[in-house]
Amino acid sequence: MESARIQQLQNLVKEFGAPLYVYDTAIIKNQYHKLLKAFKNIKKVKLNYACKANTNLAVLKYFKSLGSGLDTVSIQEVQLGLLAGFDPKEIIYTPNGVSFKEIKQVIEQGVRINIDNLSILETFGQEIKNYPVCIRINPHILAGGNTKISTGHIDSKFGISIHQLPHILRIVNNTGIKVEGIHMHTGSDILDVEVFLQGAEILFNVAKEFHDLDYIDFGSGFKVPYKKGDHETDINYLGKKLAERFNDFQKEYHKELTLMFEPGKYLVSQSGFFIVSVNVIKQTTSTVFAEVDSGFNHLIRPMFYNAYHNIFNISNPEGRHRFYTVVGYICETDTFGTNRKINEIREGDFLCFENAGAYCFSMSSNYNSRLKPAEILLLDNKPYLIRRRETLNDLLSTTEEISI
Fold this sequence. Notes:
Blueprint: H1 3-16, E1 20-24, H2 25-38, E2 45-50, H3 57-66, E3 69-72, H4 75-83, E4 91-93, H5 100-109, E5 112-115, H6 118-127, E6 133-138, E7 160-161, H7 165-175, E8 179-183, H8 193-207, E9 215-217, H9 235-253, E10 258-261, H10 265-268, E11 272-283, E12 288-292, H11 301-305, E13 311-313, E14 321-327, E15 335-343, E16 350-353, E17 374-379, E18 382-387, H12 392-396
Parallel strand pairs: 1-17, 2-3, 2-10, 3-4, 4-5, 5-6, 6-7, 6-8, 8-9, 9-10, 12-14
Antiparallel strand pairs: 1-11, 11-12, 11-16, 13-16, 14-15, 17-18
């Protein structure tokens, strides 16, 4: 970590306290334009930020300012997107396993709908008239860095099987549904570009069955590096190969289409820094623990996905390296990193976790009745408090008192 960044984070945690989430918009902007540049040879490209990665309203507004659309998975995310200023047609709603009641609520908002279930598709066609849809296809391709984030394989709950295409066509023809788009998402942390291109080819073959599409949505899942020397998706190679094939397909299809992506982690992961304070150093017969004022209630990814986050001691960046297992204060196994080589840690030091912009605060909880941290947005390198730290009153705000 660069010394200027360390100094900046030290200043922020002194001002706002710990635990603390910090997001740098300069990194978000760089990732956004990096992705657009990779697909510059396609005339019409639309990025829809997958906001489940980080739904803070200020972050959504920033993506709006960049020209992004929004990928949502719940009625609440749709509502947040509208509050952030997105036009309804800039929002696509891609639910899984929701009730038809929620789908009708979303339709009332006027946003784009992506359907991944034959039953819902048939009900939609019979009850909702003159409202275009996108259809999510499961290409039966295993991709992604972890089984919990791999969504395109044959045992996945997501999407309608490619082998059920005749059923899709039957429903579409019988009900007269206008299909405006075709979609797939194979999973997150994709390294093998060829696997992604294989899925794209499947999607092109499906698209030929629908004669008036407006867009094809290739999902996302592009991998970012988590540590020095780590691999990442070769975006430029993917952009070159997919652009060639997409442009050829448009000629075959005799219509200009929009290529859509829905990146989430790729856009915000590296922008995020999570700062915690060291409560105590505890040495056992086999391990030296650095126990901090946070846990999987604030950052669950290491426990949930076995995710790796670089951990830096920003209080003692020049100290000698020692080995620590960094753990939280939750009353369960609560490990952030095992036997990590970190500059010597002392009680009261501040540690910083990198790649904390995606699926960190958004997956946080109040487990153990712990309070959620504050969030800071760096805009033009100036810090803005975009979510205050919770208080006990926040925990009590939705409870109802009864006499016992």
